[in-house]
Design brief:
There is one protein chain. The chain has a single domain, classed as Glycosidases (TIM Barrel, Alpha-Beta Barrel). The chain has an eight-stranded parallel β-sheet. Strands 1-2-3 form a three-stranded antiparallel β-sheet. The protein is globular. The chain contains 13 helices and 15 strands. Helix 4 runs parallel beside helix 5.
Length: about 425
């Protein structure tokens, strides 16, 4: 009411200017960006711990307007279960319903599907981790970039040329720039301005066969991480890696599945200055076929503890258990939802206990949450929250525990200052 008398004195042109300014502005200002302070995520000056999920399929499903309700359903059910972070693909390179049809050529309708996904996440208070390319051929991946370069006359040797060939690296940078500067058609915000996005990931599960040391990927991470930061200084950047050890930690290579090297180096790669947080994935059943359940659980505990210690003591960066799950369709046998629930409870217990020791372990993202009527996407790991009450209860309980721990961590840090 205090401004009414002042407004009465404004000229007609002043009022017209105000109206035109408001009508051309974007949606309400976004919430604060998630940041990093020491070895933990930070939001509004306080530690940010969370429980989250993967739903890689969101953009592809949303590309069909008649299927967008499935994205909404997952966000709604996830929010009800207290899940606050979602990881999904922000890529589809040259595949069916591609976002990037060929280098520099994009399908606007698919981009608008990604707009919708981010817009819906914002409505339900869920922050997004967006991955920018796949290591594997699904949804195009590195192989698509290499094929494009070969078609342009470049001599290629393998998909690992993705990391070293100048033209391919330029293709990737151009794509990154296009995505980061994209203006969302649903709220007018550029992606690089939208705090709904928690961070960018350079690649889903990077690997390199021609250089097992991790050095080739390390050079690529340094270049591309710095490039993302040169465009977008507000969002966090991660690699999106599984956590395999390399030559910088020779005594820990034996902790890798089968004691193999995969061309990455968890420590060296994540020490890059442009990388804000570390990630690990873990699938004991798939990684240790033929091993006993006791062996797999021992591996799980060691895998998480080793990376937590490295993140806390060497990297001094927050850590996300970014993918984990137990398929109900294992090798040579079928597991029940009860088996999957038991595994989920075990992982959540480890996450909570490590997070309780300090905010370095920030949370976990279960693989993966789907909507009703998505049977064609089922991979054995599917969780439909509305149809899996026991799993929903376990997830909700973990969300509540992490939220409570978040509050206690905030109070502890404030009292220690």
């Amino acid at each position: 009411m205090h401004g009414e008398s002042k407004m009465m004195r404004w000229s007609i042109w002043g009022i017209f200017f105000l109206i035109s300014t408001l009508s051309s502005s974007s949606s309400p200002a976004p919430a604060a960006f998630v940041g990093v302070q020491d070895d933990h995520f930070q939001l509004n000056g306080s530690p940010f711990l969370f429980n989250g999920f993967n739903s890689y399929w969101m953009m592809s499903v949303a590309a069909d307007p008649n299927q967008r309700h499935k994205v909404t359903q997952v966000f709604r059910d996830a929010a009800t279960a207290g899940l606050t972070v979602c990881r999904t693909w922000a890529f589809n390179d040259g595949a069916l319903h591609a976002l990037q049809i060929s280098p520099g050529v994009y399908d606007e309708s698919v981009f608008q599907a990604l707009d919708f996904v981010i817009f819906e996440a914002r409505k339900y208070g869920i922050r997004m981790l967006l991955s920018l390319v796949n290591n594997f051929e699904e949804y195009g991946g590195r192989a698509a970039y290499v094929r494009w370069a070969e078609a342009a006359g470049v001599q290629v040797h393998s998909d690992d040329d993705f990391y070293t060939n100048q033209l391919i690296r330029t293709y990737y940078k151009n794509y990154v720039k296009k995505v980061l500067r994209r203006k969302n058609t649903m709220n007018g915000l550029r992606y690089m301005e939208d705090a709904t996005i928690m961070g960018w990931e350079l690649m889903n599960e990077a690997r390199c066969q021609v250089d097992s040391s991790g050095n080739t990927i390390n050079r690529w991470v340094e270049e591309m991480g710095s490039y993302v930061k040169s465009i977008d200084k507000q969002h966090l950047v991660g690699i999106g890696m599984e956590g395999f050890y390399g030559d910088s930690s020779p005594n820990k290579i034996k902790a890798n599945p089968g004691s193999f090297k995969f061309g990455t180096d968890f420590v060296t790669n994540n020490l890059n200055k442009a990388i804000d947080f570390a990630t690990i994935h873990v699938y004991p059943d798939a990684w240790l076929p033929g091993k006993s359940e006791a062996t797999r659980m021992a591996f799980l505990e060691e895998w998480m503890a080793l990376h937590w210690m490295d993140s806390k003591n060497i990297l001094k960066k927050p850590l996300i258990l970014e993918e984990f799950g137990k398929s109900i369709r294992g090798q040579n046998q079928t597991f029940s939802v009860r088996d999957s629930d038991a595994f989920l409870s075990k992982v959540y217990s480890i996450i909570y206990n490590l997070a309780r020791k300090g905010a370095t372990m920030a949370g976990g993202l279960v693989w993966q949450v789907m909507a009703e009527g998505m049977e064609s996407y089922y991979d054995g790991y599917e969780i439909v929250l509305s149809q899996n009450p026991s799993t929903n209860t376990i997830i909700t309980k973990q969300s509540n525990k992490m939220a409570a721990l978040n509050t206690r961590t905030q109070h502890h840090l404030r009292s220690s200052y």
